[in-house]
């Protein structure tokens, strides 16, 4: 039996969204789906709301109300899983998919919150 003497080291991510999510403990708190209005609303623990078009996610767009209602937060809040649809979506993907203006607003507010906490 051989054992490795290599040390496992966690390296900081070079992706700014990963750093924002993991270093600042941003996670999904809840979801609201308004199929009639083509809306998927993701509520974060920071009380920010990501307002997405349901039609941006083909498997969700074509799902029934019952299937859409069967979601759960996974990975300590970094994703949502729809068991009946066998579909999982990540917080990072949600942030990337919102319109650029909304993304800049959310990211800058999260960064400002971090700066206030460090002061």
Structure description:
With 119 residues, this protein is of the alpha+beta class. The chain has a single domain, classed as Uncharacterised protein PF10387, DUF2442 (NE0471 N-terminal domain-like), CATH 3.30.2020.40. Helix content is 36%, strand content 25%. It contains five helices and six strands. The protein has a three-stranded antiparallel sheet, with helices on one face. The termini are far apart.
Task: Specify the structural class.
Answer: alpha+beta
Query: Describe the biggest sheet?
Result: 3 strands, antiparallel
Uncertain runs: none
Structural domain count:
1
CATH topology call: NE0471 N-terminal domain-like
Helix content, binned percent: 25-40%
User: What is the CATH C-level name?
Assistant: Alpha Beta
CATH superfamily: Uncharacterised protein PF10387, DUF2442
On the 0 to 100 scale, the average pLDDT is 82
The backbone outline, from C-alpha atoms, is globular
Strand content: 25-35%
Order of helices and strands: HEEEHHEEEHH
Number of helical segments with 4 or more residues: 5
CA-to-CA gap between the ends?
51 Å
Strand order of the largest sheet: 1-2-3
> How many β-strand runs?
6
